[in-house]
């Protein structure tokens, strides 16, 4: 093979033919274009006229060039040119192909697979055993999984990137002995332990690395600061200015996932990270489920949003707003301090607040609520609200929940409450007991200095122990909770200020509020708040950044979540515990990317596995094109494109450009033809045979009408739904074919207008011989598809008193070529009643807009140009009878279309005569 | 070869809208034959002209006794001298006339026959005697003559270009030549001068195809006459166009000059124009020339 740059030739000797090109040039130059012979009587006048010069007998240079190029292309084409000819790689012995298999390679994963495929093909050619390792998914076998390359090629589609980086790979390798050569498909990012693994591999044999320098960027978790959402991104710190677009994705109010906002993030040249702020209204912000880098496909480009971004709306209501006091004594002061950084606080009257539908309503020592307020509050709780109540002197003094359980209190209360350890009482202030395992507070450390001096007491009750979620060291309840509907009611048996206990002064208070999901905030790795909790994965990310259902995976302990180190055990995704959600993202707030550097002992190759592209076909096609151009050009040079026949071509072009006008002309003609006389229309289906039959059928029924009734229709017209006006036709016959195209939106709009304004369409599925109405014949399914967007009223089989049975003939059967009774029309109004003494129900409004059936009426009606019947119906005399009934049905239908409910009104004649005093 | 009946009916249809063409009578010394044209002098005829005193050579039965009874002398009734005009047609039937540049256009020959026969019909309707040059169809009147004429006109000639036959033209009659006049002009010249010598007036109608006027050709071309006898090869037909058109104009000019010199009329007609226009012109040319 001869290689010239990126192009090689499989048969380079053919190129010698190029030497002949100058000779061909000279030859072509010497031969003038062939003359045309024309008959022309004026030749007598031409005799003796000589040409001005003899230059024109030469072929023009550009035509010569064209022909030479064509010949050159043929020669080059047969020389077998190949783009990117591949040089075979050699080697022997076992081969290990190592894939990083992390999210960083997801963006061009297919390239990697193709590269591996090429390497496997080479290995197969060299008869080498291969082991293919994805470092993120190492097999547990005792040995390296050597196998034939063909086996691996079959398994290539199963390879997937994982949304984390390889971990603990050196021990795995050291446990498996053997000498081999290594091809390492690197993702281009450094990871912990990579150098050690490389060293371990180099001990076993040569290592070749395939890596393409490629910018990798990732999205850090968004955070909330000063009312703004801070979106930050990181990348490998090389390269120029770069702008990426970050999209905030969430469900819109209609429940459809869409981009709620987009914001550009600019990396300055050489910088590893960039951030920008995004200001969104809280309602929109709370809808965000994830951020994505537009146009990048990897797990790092997706950052799931969790509670840290969501700000709960908390309404604070205190019972004692009539007392002007110091701030520190205000029952809401500590709550406000605890919630302000992490939640949106709403103040106002209860009825106003309920309209805003907050997440949490806090009632601090509120005993009495108006009945309306209490009912509204209860509804709100049942529909998912969280009511958080604090005790206090008022609640203790009131009779609320004494004898019966108040729906807005978790437990019944004893009157008065108790005081311990005060100046007038015995005993020490009580401390908190450790939280029970089933309590949402389990795992929170209890500070020593938290003490309770007063509390309200719960009535002993069978349900009490289930509802206590925190208690004092003497076993009395401190916090009780009751689930109510979709929501819950929580009562702190102490005040929200420091009057009754020091709990509001401690950090525990804030943590308890967090556990109750009253407030939300970002977690950090050393967070005690996660201790003892178990989190269930709800959604997990795959390596490409697509979200998968995580409900089949097992739960993860809070400690593991706190470490925030994605691995096979802690897959990146969204984890939930009770009402709280935490996102584990591939890129943490501190993550940085480092480009993998390789020592000089390792060969680094590019990733491009460019396939050989044979160019022969292209060149020969080019030669053919040149020759085609040459045909036209030769004709032009020889004068054959001019002269009499050129007029035809020009006229054709003019006709093409003028055709819209012609169309307009014909649409006027169409309107005239359709409106000068009554014309029945049939919808053109695109199947010429069906259209012809439909036309013949309508011709037949038109002729019958002409002979038997006062209706004298003209020849039927085929109607194109897309282009023709439908309003001219009182009646459209629509045969359904199984492969009919659906009408366009405009056509549907026209059809619906037509149906609403009194037109009638007769759908004929023509399948009554083999299928019943609604059963799955192909035509029936097509009709369903077509009718889905049509404005068709409820339908019923033609009732025996339908006006169609008596508009002209008295009929009870509606056969066509087939005699099925399944013919459906618009259903009678539900109120229609049989009037005493009348044979028919009172159904006197409207013409049915549709008749649906499958009796193939057109074939029963069809006559050809000479008036002969085109298709047989039935057998013998009964068949003739059936055709007659079919024709009568057709007459009835057209009568119904044109006269409406006239025959229906006739049933009132006796009433009218009565009223006239007859 | 054209169907004579079809040609006849086409010509009848074309001739129908025109009033009967009465050719101007001219004094003809030798062709004294009865016709419908009053000569404003006494002679043979059917209508009354004048009473004149009887001469000794008048026979007794010629005397108009009713008039003579009112006077002393005898009177003889003179009739008006009435004669018919003779018109001979020459319609070119050569191969060059059978050219048509477009299937939608009629051939020149077809148009020439149609115009010739239509004129003949008008003339016959006006009582004239019509015939063809040459000796095959001497001038006569009547519908039978038209049938024979249609039959003869439908024949095709074998020559490449036609030349008028000067025989058979009666002195002081009239003549109509219809041709493309693209062939040798000397034959036309000779025929015209001979006709003028014998006191024959008339009209020449040149019929051309639109392509012969436009010459829309390009490139290397071999032009052939209709029989292929004449050829001319050019390498760049476009360059010939101006010179061809010059020659065509010169030919027309020559014919025009010739016509004026001999007291004839000349006109060019194209096959893509209406045939009725040409017939109107022929009508005028036959009527007004004296």
UniProtKB/TrEMBL annotation, chain A:
SUPFAM superfamilies: Class I glutamine amidotransferase-like. Keywords: Membrane, Transmembrane, Transmembrane helix. It comes from the Bacteria. Gene3D superfamilies: 3.40.50.880, Domain of unknown function DUF4159. The chain crosses the membrane at residues 6-28, 61-83. Residues 680-898 form the DUF4159 domain. CDD domains: A4_beta-galactosidase_middle_domain (cd03143). PANTHER family: BLL2463 PROTEIN (PTHR37464). NCBIfam families: two_anch. This is N-terminal double-transmembrane domain-containing protein. It comes from Yoonia litorea.
TrEMBL record, chain B:
Residues 50-250 form the DUF58 domain. InterPro entries: DUF58 (IPR002881). This is DUF58 domain-containing protein. It comes from Yoonia litorea. Pfam families: DUF58. The lineage of its organism: Bacteria, Pseudomonadati, Pseudomonadota, Alphaproteobacteria, Rhodobacterales.
């Amino acid at each position: 093979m001869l290689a010239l740059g990126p192009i090689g030739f499989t048969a380079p000797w053919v190129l010698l033919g190029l030497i002949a090109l100058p000779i061909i040039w000279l030859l072509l130059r010497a031969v003038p274009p062939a003359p045309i012979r024309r008959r022309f009587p004026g030749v007598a006048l031409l005799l003796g006229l000589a040409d001005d010069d003899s230059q024109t007998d030469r072929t023009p240079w550009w035509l010569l060039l064209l022909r030479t190029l064509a010949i050159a292309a043929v020669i080059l084409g047969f020389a077998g040119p190949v783009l990117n000819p591949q040089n075979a790689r050699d080697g022997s012995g076992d081969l290990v192909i190592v894939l990083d298999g992390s999210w960083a390679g997801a963006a061009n994963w297919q390239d990697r697979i193709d590269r591996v495929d090429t390497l496997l093909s080479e290995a197969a050619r060299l008869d080498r055993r291969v082991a293919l390792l994805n470092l993120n998914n190492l097999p547990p076998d005792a040995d390296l999984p050597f196998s034939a390359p063909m086996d691996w090629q079959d398994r290539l589609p199963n390879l997937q990137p994982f949304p984390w980086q390889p971990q603990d790979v050196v021990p795995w390798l050291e446990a498996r002995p053997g000498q081999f050569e290594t091809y390492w498909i690197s993702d281009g990012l450094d990871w912990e332990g990579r150098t050690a693994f490389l060293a371990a591999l180099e001990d076993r044999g040569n290592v070749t690395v395939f890596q393409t320098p490629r910018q990798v960027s990732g999205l850090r978790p968004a955070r909330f600061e000063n009312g703004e959402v801070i979106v930050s991104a990181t990348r490998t710190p090389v390269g120029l200015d770069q702008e990426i677009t970050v999209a905030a994705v969430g469900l819109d109010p209609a429940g459809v996932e869409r981009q709620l906002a987009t914001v550009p993030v600019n990396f300055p040249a050489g910088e590893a990270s960039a951030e920008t702020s995004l200001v969104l209204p809280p309602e929109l912000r709370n809808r965000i489920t994830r951020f994505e880098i537009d146009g990048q496909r990897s797990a790092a480009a997706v950052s799931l949003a969790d509670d840290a971004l969501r700000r709960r709306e908390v309404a604070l209501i205190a019972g004692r707003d009539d007392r002007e006091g110091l701030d520190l004594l205000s029952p809401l002061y500590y709550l406000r301090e605890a919630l302000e950084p992490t939640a949106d606080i709403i103040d106002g009257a209860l009825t106003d607040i309920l309209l805003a539908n907050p997440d949490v309503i806090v009632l601090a020592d509120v005993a009495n609520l108006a009945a309306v307020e209490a009912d509204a509050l209860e509804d709100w709780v049942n529909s998912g609200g969280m009511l958080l109540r604090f005790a206090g002197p008022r609640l203790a003094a009131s009779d609320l929940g004494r004898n019966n359980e108040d729906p807005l209190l978790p437990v019944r209360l004893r009157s008065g409450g108790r005081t311990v350890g005060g100046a007038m009482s015995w005993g020490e202030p009580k401390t908190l007991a450790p939280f029970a395992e089933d309590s949402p507070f389990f795992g929170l450390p209890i500070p020593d200095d938290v003490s309770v001096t007063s509390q309200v007491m719960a009535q002993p009750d069978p349900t009490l122990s289930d509802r206590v979620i925190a208690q004092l060291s003497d076993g009395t309840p401190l916090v009780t909770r009751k689930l109510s509907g979709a929501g819950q009611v929580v009562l702190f048996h102490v005040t929200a200020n420091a009057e009754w206990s020091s709990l509001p002064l401690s950090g525990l208070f804030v943590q308890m509020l967090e556990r109750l999901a009253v407030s939300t905030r970002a977690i950090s790795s050393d967070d005690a708040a996660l201790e003892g909790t178990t989190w269930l994965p709800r959604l997990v990310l795959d390596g490409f950044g697509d979200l998968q259902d995580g409900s089949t995976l097992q739960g993860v302990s809070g400690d593991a979540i706190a470490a925030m180190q994605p691995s096979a055990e802690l897959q990146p995704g969204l984890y939930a515990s009770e009402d709280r959600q935490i996102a584990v993202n591939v890129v943490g707030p501190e993550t940085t990317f480092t480009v993998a550097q390789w020592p000089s002992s390792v060969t680094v190759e590019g990733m491009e596995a460019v396939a050989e592209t044979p160019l022969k076909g292209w060149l020969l096609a080019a030669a053919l094109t040149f020759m085609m151009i040459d045909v036209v050009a030769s004709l032009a040079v020889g004068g054959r494109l001019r002269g009499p026949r050129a007029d035809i071509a020009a006229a054709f072009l003019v006709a093409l450009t003028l055709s819209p006008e012609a169309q307009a002309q014909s649409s006027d003609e169409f309107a005239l033809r359709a409106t000068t006389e009554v014309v029945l229309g049939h919808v053109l289906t695109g199947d010429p045979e069906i259209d012809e039959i439909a036309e013949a059928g309508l011709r037949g029924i038109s002729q019958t009408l002409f002979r038997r009734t006062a209706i004298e229709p003209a020849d039927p017209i085929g109607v194109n739904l897309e282009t023709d006006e439908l309003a001219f036709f009182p009646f459209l016959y629509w045969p359904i074919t199984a492969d009919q195209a659906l009408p366009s939106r405009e056509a549907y709009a026209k059809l619906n207008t037509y149906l609403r304004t009194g037109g009638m369409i007769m759908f004929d599925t023509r399948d009554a011989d083999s299928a019943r109405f609604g059963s799955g014949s192909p035509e029936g399914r097509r009709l369903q598809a077509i009718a889905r967007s049509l404005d068709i009223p409820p339908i019923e089989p033609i009732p025996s008193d339908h006006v169609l049975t008596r508009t002209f003939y008295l009929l009870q059967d509606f056969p066509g070529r087939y005699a099925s009774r399944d013919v459906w029309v618009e259903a009678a109004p539900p109120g229609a009643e049989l009037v005493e003494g009348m044979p028919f129900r009172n159904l006197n409004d409207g013409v049915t807009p549709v008749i649906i059936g499958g009796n193939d009426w057109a074939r029963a009606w069809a006559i050809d140009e000479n008036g002969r019947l085109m298709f047989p119906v039935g057998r013998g005399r009964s068949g003739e009878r059936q055709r007659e009934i079919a024709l009568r049905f057709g007459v009835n239908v057209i009568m119904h279309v044109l006269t409406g409910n006239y025959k229906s009104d006739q049933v009132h004649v006796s009433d009218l005569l009565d009223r006239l005093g007859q | 070869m054209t169907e004579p009946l079809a040609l006849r009916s086409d010509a009848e249809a074309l001739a129908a809208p025109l009033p009967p063409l009465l050719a101007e009578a001219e004094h003809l010394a030798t062709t004294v034959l009865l016709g419908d044209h009053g000569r404003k002098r006494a002679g043979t005829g059917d209508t009354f002209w004048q009473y004149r005193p009887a001469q000794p050579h008048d026979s007794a039965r010629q005397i108009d006794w009713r008039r003579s009874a009112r006077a002393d002398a005898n009177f003889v009734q003179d009739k008006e001298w009435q004669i018919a005009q003779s018109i001979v047609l020459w319609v070119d039937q050569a191969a060059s006339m059978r050219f048509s540049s477009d299937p939608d256009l009629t051939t020149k020959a077809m148009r020439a026959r149609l115009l010739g026969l239509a004129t003949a019909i008008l003339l016959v309707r006006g009582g004239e005697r019509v015939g063809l040059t040459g000796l095959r169809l001497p001038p006569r009147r009547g519908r039978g003559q038209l049938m024979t004429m249609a039959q003869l006109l439908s024949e095709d000639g074998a020559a490449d270009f036609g030349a008028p036959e000067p025989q058979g033209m009666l002195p002081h009659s009239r003549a109509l030549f219809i041709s493309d006049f693209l062939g040798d002009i000397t034959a036309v010249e000779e025929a015209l001068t001979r006709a003028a010598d014998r006191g024959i007036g008339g009209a020449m109608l040149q019929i051309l195809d639109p392509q012969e006027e436009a010459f829309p050709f390009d490139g290397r071309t071999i032009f052939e006459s209709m029989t292929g006898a004449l050829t001319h090869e050019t390498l760049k037909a476009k360059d010939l166009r101006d010179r061809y058109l010059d020659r065509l104009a010169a030919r027309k000019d020559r014919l025009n000059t010739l016509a004026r010199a001999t007291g004839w009329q000349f006109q060019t007609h194209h096959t893509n124009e209406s045939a009725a226009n040409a017939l109107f012109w022929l009508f005028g040319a036959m009527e007004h020339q004296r």
